[in-house]
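Appendix B, record 7
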Amino acid sequence: MNILHIDCSPRQESHSRRLSAAIVKKLLETTPGANIRRRDFAAAPLPHASPDYATTLSSPTTLATPLSGSLELSDALIHEVEAADVIVIGTPLNNLTVPSSLKAWIDQILRAGRTFKSTPVGKVGMLRDRPVFIAVASGGVFRGDRANQPDFFTPYLSAVLGSIGLKNIQFLSVQATAFLDQDQGTLARDQALKEIDLRVIEELV
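Structure tokens (predicted):
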């Protein structure tokens, strides 16, 4: 099994990083021989869309004759997704949505004619589905009965990943991190980890 493990938090000891690492550890208990492809967008941030990339994607004509080198990064990132049997993403919730580092990745892997096709009813994914585990940490509360802010994060990622074919998504969250001490943070991560459904992994092995 191949695991693509992505982290986005600029803090090396963040709640989202610890939770994503715990998810990977849990997956390795199920499939000890799994290979891990690592992407750390804090240590090695992706560039935002370059002018050549934007120009290439701007119309069917330019996409049919891409500018030299404009699709290299996009191709590499898409190949990583295609090679993965499972994707684990650790990310903070920044200002009600995904951080720009994760958005830069999304903008490279969503590509007309490559990962989705446009139809009269909207985008249709061209990639095979696979489990995606999203470990999210938020300073406030955006899900559940105690939510005190809107949840744009969950529907956005569900829609954007679903548009390329990734629909088997599990969200595991640690919330109110601005008010948690170290022990409370550990308990919150342990509680979030209990929600992971490994049956989707067992079907792969």
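Remarks on this record: The beta strands are 2-7, 35-40, 86-92, 116-119, 122-125, 132-137, 169-174. The chain has one domain: 2-202.
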